[in-house]
UniProtKB/TrEMBL annotation:
Name of this chain's protein: PIN domain-containing protein
SUPFAM superfamilies registered for this protein in UniProt: PIN domain-like (SSF88723)
Ranges annotated as spanning the membrane: none
Boundaries of every PIN domain copy: 9-46
Source organism of the structure: Synechococcus elongatus PCC 11802
Amino acid sequence: MPGDRPTQLRQQQRIKLPDAIIAATALTESLPLVTRNAKDFQNIAGL
């Protein structure tokens, strides 16, 4: 379920909720993630 994706990312990667929502949206919608803060997303597979 797409709404569970941010929760899963937070539990697995220990990231902040806003970052988890951004990452989950990019993954769910198959979109590239463009950020100036790459270190927060570096351990998330598929980004």
